[in-house]
Design a protein that fits this description.
By secondary structure, this protein is an alpha/beta fold. The protein has a seven-stranded mixed sheet, with helices on both faces. The protein has a four-stranded antiparallel sheet with strand order 5-4-7-8, sandwiched between helices. α6 packs across α7. It binds adenosine-5'-triphosphate (ATP) and magnesium ion. The site of adenosine-5'-triphosphate has 13 residues, from β5 and α5.
Length: about 375
C-alpha cells in the first residue's frame, strides 16, 4: 500500500486504513488488542457511574464549570423539563399508587476516566477525566484548547481508536457506554492535514466512505454531489478536479464533506481550520455550525484559537502543558450570529478575555506549584 493510500483512507471512517470496510467490520481488523482487563474496566465504569450519581444533586444546585458569557438559546431544547416532571410525579392507577420514577439522567456519549498515555518513559497525557453527555437532536461542540504537545491529538485519536495513540496505557475510554476497541462508523475524523486521495476526483473523494460501505456507484456519486454543494463547492466546476488543483480551503471542504456524508454520531476534528486565512476560516466556521445544526453530532474540535473555541463551543476542555491534564472545563454560549459579526461583539470579546485569563492564571499557578 502506498503512503498516499494509507493516509486518506483513514479520513472518512478511520477504520478504512486496514481494509475496504470502513466501519464496524474494519474495526476488528484495525484494532490492536487494548491491554484492558474487562472486569477492571467494568468496575471502573460502575465506580464512575456511582461518582456521577453522587455528584448529581449538588451539581444541579451549583454547576461545576464557570459559565463564561451569557448563555444564549440552544438550537433545540435538550431535555424537556415537562417529561421529567411527569416521570417523577406519583401517579394513581386503579387505586394503586405508583412510586415516582427517578428523573431521567443524561447519557454520556464520551467518558474518559483517569486516562494516561505513555510512550516508554514519556507521559503524553496523565489522568485525564471528563464526561460529555449525549444531546439527541442538538449535539454538542467540544473545543479542546491547550499548548502544542499537551496531548490534544492524543485525546481525540483515543476516542477514534487510532494507533499508535490507541490504546491508552491506563484508564478507561468509553464511547456510547462501550469501551473503545478500535475505529468505528459512529466516529468520523477530519485530520490536521486534511489529506485526500490524490488520484481521485473531488466527487470520488467525497464518495469514498460510501463506497467503503458498499453503496452503489450511482447513489454514492449523487449523494456526494449533494454534499459537494453543501460545503460550498461548485458541482459544475469542482466535481471533476483533483486535490492538487484545489486551494487549502477547498481541500478542507472536501475533507469535511467526506466525513459528514457518513453522518457519524461523533465528529473528531484536529485543527481543521489551522492553515486557513482568517476570512476563509470564518466562512468555514459558519459552515461547520450550519452542518452541525443539520446533523446534531457531538463534535470534538481541537484549536489553538480561544476565539474559535468560544465561537464554536458549548463545553470547552482546557488542557495543561505536557503531560496533558484537564485544567478546566468551561461552558460557553452557543453561536447566535455569523462568526465575523459575533467576534466583534463586546460580550463575545469579554468571554474570550475570561477564558484567556483562566488559562493564564491556571498556567502561572501550575508553574508556581500551587
Ligand atoms: N507515537 C508517538 N511516540 C512518541 N511520542 C509521541 C507519539 N505520538 C505523540 N507523541 C508525543 O506525545 C505528546 C502529545 O502529542 P500530541 O500530538 O497529542 O500533542 P498536541 O497537543 O496535539 O500538539 P499540537 O498542538 O502541536 O498538535 C507530544 O510530546 C508528542 O511528541
Ligand atoms: Mg495535534
Amino acid at each position: 500500500m502506498s503512503s498516499a493510500d494509507d493516509k486518506p483512507k483513514a479520513a472518512p471512517a478511520p477504520a478504512a486504513k486496514d481494509g475496504p470496510a470502513a466501519g464496524d467490520g474494519a474495526a476488528k481488523a484495525a484494532a490492536p488488542a487494548a491491554p484492558i482487563d474487562p472486569a477492571a474496566a467494568e468496575a471502573a465504569l460502575k465506580e464512575f457511574e456511582r461518582e456521577l450519581a453522587a455528584a448529581d444533586e449538588p451539581r444541579a444546585a451549583a454547576p461545576p464549570s464557570p459559565k463564561v458569557g451569557t448563555p444564549g438559546p440552544k438550537p433545540a431544547p435538550a431535555a424537556p423539563a415537562k417529561a421529567t416532571d411527569e416521570r417523577s410525579a406519583a401517579r394513581v392507577t386503579g387505586g394503586a399508587v405508583l412510586k415516582p420514577l427517578a428523573p431521567a439522567q443524561p447519557t454520556p456519549i464520551v467518558v474518559f476516566d483517569k486516562v494516561t498515555k505513555s510512550y516508554g518513559n514519556f507521559t503524553a497525557i496523565k489522568d485525564v477525566s471528563f464526561r460529555i453527555d449525549d444531546h439527541p437532536g442538538r449535539g454538542e461542540m467540544v473545543p479542546i484548547l491547550g499548548p502544542s504537545g499537551c496531548g490534544k491529538s492524543t485525546v481525540i485519536r483515543l476516542i477514534a481508536g487510532l494507533a499508535p495513540q490507541f490504546p491508552q496505557t491506563s484508564g478507561t475510554v468509553l464511547v456510547g457506554g462501550q469501551i473503545v476497541k478500535g475505529p468505528g462508523a459512529d466516529r468520523g475524523m477530519v485530520f490536521q492535514d486534511y489529506t485526500s486521495f490524490d488520484h481521485r476526483t473531488v466527487l470520488e473523494n467525497i464518495a469514498f466512505g460510501l463506497e467503503c460501505r458498499g453503496v452503489g456507484k450511482r447513489e454514492r456519486l449523487d449523494r456526494a454531489m449533494v454534499w459537494l454543494g453543501k460545503v460550498g463547492l461548485s458541482p459544475k466546476k469542482d466535481a471533476d478536479k483533483y486535490p492538487s488543483e484545489l486551494s487549502g480551503g477547498m481541500r478542507q471542504r472536501v475533507a469535511i464533506a467526506r466525513t459528514l456524508i457518513l453522518e457519524p454520531k461523533i465528529i473528531l476534528m484536529d485543527e481543521p481550520f489551522g492553515a486557513l486565512d482568517p476570512p476563509t476560516r470564518a466562512r468555514m466556521q459558519d459552515l461547520l455550525i450550519e452542518l452541525w445544526r443539520e446533523q446534531s453530532p457531538t463534535v470534538f474540535f481541537i484549536t489553538h484559537s480561544v476565539e474559535e473555541a468560544v465561537y464554536l463551543g458549548d463545553h470547552v476542555l482546557i488542557f495543561s502543558s505536557s503531560p496533558g491534564t484537564i485544567l478546566k472545563e468551561v461552558k460557553v454560549a452557543p453561536p447566535e450570529k455569523p462568526a465575523k459579526e459575533m467576534q466583534r461583539d463586546p460580550a463575545f470579546q469579554e468571554t474570550v478575555f475570561g477564558i484567556k485569563e483562566i488559562i493564564e492564571n491556571l498556567e502561572s499557578s501550575q508553574r508556581s506549584g500551587d
